Amino acid sequence: MTAVADVKPRLMTQPRLQRLREVLHQMRKEWTAYLFISPGLIMFAIFNLFAIGYSFYLSFHKWNILEPAKPFVGLDNYTRLIGDEGFHQAVGNTAYYTAVAVPLTMIVGLLVALLLNNEIRGRGIFRTLYYVPVITPLVVSAIIWKWVYQGDYGLLNYYLTRLGLIEKPLLFLADPDLAIPAVILMSAWGGTGYYMVVFLAGLQSIPEVYYDAAKVDGANWIQRLFHITVPLLAPTTFFLFVTSVIGSFQVFVQIYIMTSGGPLHRTTTIGYYLYEKAFRHFDMGYATAMAYALFAMIFVFTLLQFRLRRDIEY
Q: Distance between CA 154 and CA 304 in Å, rounded?
């Protein structure tokens, strides 16, 4: 019995050893491929894997650039987030930005895609014009919109005054109630072209036979939209929603250029608050803990979206 028991593990391990030898043989055989991709792998290892690991190490230390002592503090940086009112406000501002900017941009992008999916004169030109803000550097777009919102000579105040809609110029970026809606409007303007292109790809993948059958049954444009277009665009919509939420949680450039946190910190998002702690207060340990807290939020929210998607499908 003992001899039989000893033979069985050997028989089980032999196929595994054989497969391992085959893999190693193929790796030696294709060493030139690994040689060509080695620069990219080295850069990825240094600037991604090492950076992620080292930042996680920093999050457990009181790490100030200007101070030589960098003591280990354990979970203090993470527990500090619980009582940080500034962090709580940043989370609320980020949630508000996400809840408004993502649906607004997706709806406008879908409407533009539906319009430009039709055979209209100059369709290519309109598609190009709508996509230009996407390829414009975000910093440049933010500077332009900061000038548009300017209180004394801004373009928006000029036209609102000429139309008689306001009596005196509004300080869009200095008003606590108008600052973050102004940033959201700018973000929607810059992202509509991207959503348009992705939705156009989804629309053109829908077979025309569905629309022809619906027309024969007497369905109007609204019925075809909600019973054919929207359901068949569900995978595209889900992709855009997930990536948009992830991007909105990390919003930074618009805030940094246009408001610098805004009046009463009403536009201070998690990304901008993290920047302040890291590069203004030099509290790298606390900033990296905040970065991992942001990662946890994005990860959990993304899992919830995939779970909700699966529940809806089944």
A: 42
Between CA 238 and CA 205 the distance in angstroms is 16
Which residue is listed with tokens 């809609």?
165
150 in helix, strand or coil? coil
Longest dimension (CA), the chain: 98
Quick check: helix, strand or coil at residue 61?
A: strand
Nearest CA to 253 out of 103, 154, 136 is that of 136
CA angle 84, 87, 89 (to 5 degrees): 110
Distance CA 6, CA 16 (A): 17
Q: For residue 292, with 0-12 CB atoms within 10 Å meaning exposed, 13-18 middle and 19 or more buried, which class applies?
A: middle
Measuring CA to CA, which residue among 278, 296, 279, 295 is closest to residue 287? 278
Task: Centre a 10 Å sphere on the Cβ of residue 236 and count the other Cβ atoms it contains.
Answer: 19
* SS3 (DSSP) at 233: coil
**pLDDT tens, position by position, 55-90:** 999 999 999 888 888 899 999 999 999 999 999 999
Say how far apart CA 221 and CA 213 lie, in whole Å.
Answer: 13
**What 3-state DSSP class applies to 173?**
coil
| Terminal alpha carbon distance of the chain | 50
What is the predicted pLDDT for the residue at 102? 96
Q: How far apart are CA 225 and CA 237, in angstroms?
A: 14
Sorted by where each begins, the domain ranges of the chain are: 2-58, 76-313
User: How open is the CA angle 157-111-215, to the nearest 5 degrees?
Assistant: 150
pLDDT in tens, 14-46: 677 788 777 777 766 677 777 888 899 899 999
* DSSP conformation class of 264: G
Report residue 31 as tokens: 């060493």
Q: How far apart are the C-alpha atoms of 75 and 82, rounded to whole Å?
A: 12
**CATH code that applies to domain 76-313:** 1.10.3720.10
Residue 283: phi, psi to the nearest 5?
-95, 75
